[in-house]
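BUG: 3D viewer hangs when loading the predicted structure for this chain

Environment: internal workstation, default settings.
Expected: structure renders.
Actual: progress bar stalls at 90%.

Input used:
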Amino acid sequence: MAHLGDITKVDGGKIPPVHVITFGSPCQNLSLIGNRSGLAGAKSSLFYQAFRIIQEMRDATDNLYPAIAVWENVMGAFSTNDRMDFRAVLSAFSDTEVPMPPSRTIDTILNIILFVPLGFFLPLLYKKYHHMKTVALTGFLFSLAVEIVQMFGWGSSDINDLMTNTAGACIGFLVYCLLSRILPANLKKQLQSSRVNAVAEVLLFAICTFAIMVTAQTWFVHDVLNVP
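Structure tokens produced before the viewer hung:
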């Protein structure tokens, strides 16, 4: 195996042409646990150096080599800089401008609304959730679990979802604090439980939360309610 040295100093037109080039540019600026500066970051920007080599080789071989180029990276590469980094990758590989509209404000709002019922019903039903930090931590961990599942192919993980979901849980808690002032004390006593596994409370929480979460989904808002 030949070691060509510093990638920033390699000339793709002067090295032996190959049929396939595979590369994985550093992921530190793209990762969900990185600084998320994207392809503009000092490390992840090496993507452009690798692609420069590909282009130089194709120019030197009349576009014959490489016939295939494969880029590997983390899931976070799909979402940095409002997906514009991934758009840059697609444009580089296809040698054309790829249309990719930015995320809409409605999607951010829906991510917040999605967790409002969680923040509302937890303190309403369980005494142990009468503190903002407890509700916020629960909302964060619940959102984190969803994002981890999505990392394995069931959706797209995004660090922004963690923040908006947690904010939604906190807003739900604030709504509870406001409404608890007007709710009869005996009603709150009947609803609240010191046991997290109380069947009636969990069932009520699950039904109400599911109903609100479904109506907050993008497809429901756009397709059913016909909101653009």
